[in-house]
Amino acid sequence: MIKVEQISKSFNNLEILNNVSFEIKRGDFVGVMGPSGSGKSTLLYSISQMDSVSGGRILFEGRNLSEMPEVELSEFRLTKMGFVFQNAQMLKNLSIFNNIILPGLIAKKETVHIIRERASKLMKRMEIEGLEERDVREVSGGQLQRASICRAMINNPEILFLDEPTGALNSAATDQVLAILEDLNHEGMTIMTVTHEPRVAAKAKKVLYIQDGQIAACKEFLTVTDHERELDKWLMELTH
Ligand SMILES: Nc1ncnc2c1ncn2[C@@H]1O[C@H](COP(=O)(O)OP(=O)(O)OP(=O)(O)O)[C@@H](O)[C@H]1O
Ligand SMILES: [Mg+2]
Description:
Residues 2-237 form the ABC transporter domain. Pfam families: ABC_tran. The structure is a single chain. By secondary structure, the chain is an alpha/beta fold. The protein has one domain (2-90, 156-239): Rossmann fold (3-Layer(aba) Sandwich). The chain has helices at residues 40-47, 70-80, 96-107, 112-125, 141-153, 171-186, 198-201, 228-239, and strands spanning 2-11, 14-24, 29-33, 55-60, 63-64, 81-84, 159-163, 190-194, 206-211, 214-220. Helix 3 packs across helix 4, helix 3 runs parallel beside helix 5 (141-153) and helix 5 packs parallel to helix 6. It is globular. 38% of the residues are buried. It binds adenosine-5'-triphosphate and magnesium ion. Magnesium ion (MG) binds at residues 40-41, 163.
């Protein structure tokens, strides 16, 4: 689905990503781990082309995103990719519901009715129905993060990108978000998430370990069951 070919990225002559290559297959669940400052967020934003790369290319279903005209790229991102950030970036002057439907209204691909219906279904599924009219500041961190997932899903994306989706959540709220991600992936959604929590990465089928802007190691898990212990062991070996 996505082929990342030797991408590099530098800021002020400082190399942040260095020749990174890998592939995301449809239905994959990719976890991205690594020390703080190693380039995980930069990698996520580069693949999704929210940020340009200095070298290499990103092919999305064979199409070179680095060469796509900006207008087309924006639409591509809006309709094919969903994003969830560490601190749910929701607009404070809009209700939760209106925040969720906003990317749908901007995409203008479907009627408002269809978008609203999908938003309601998503909210129900994420167990936050009833919070439609609340202000962003009137819900818990976990509820807000689940609302962000609804928003990311509003245009039926083909891939969901998440940057530390549980970074600000307590253990129970983390479990809820994890259960949702697992469910979505079982239904076929392709997921790529940055996380520093082994508990989150243990849900992935493939984990990339980024160090100094490079993929220092990559592990694929063959079993479908939770592989937290296997992951812990791998991380221990990598960091000691
Ligand atoms: N816009 C920018 N301008 C200059 N340097 C940047 C910019 N964005 C990121 N960097 C630098 O690039 C490096 C990688 O940053 P990045 O945010 O990708 O790290 P990360 O692995 O996501 O870290 P964390 O786990 O702390 O979120 C860091 O050294 C950071 O200071
Ligand atoms: Mg980061």
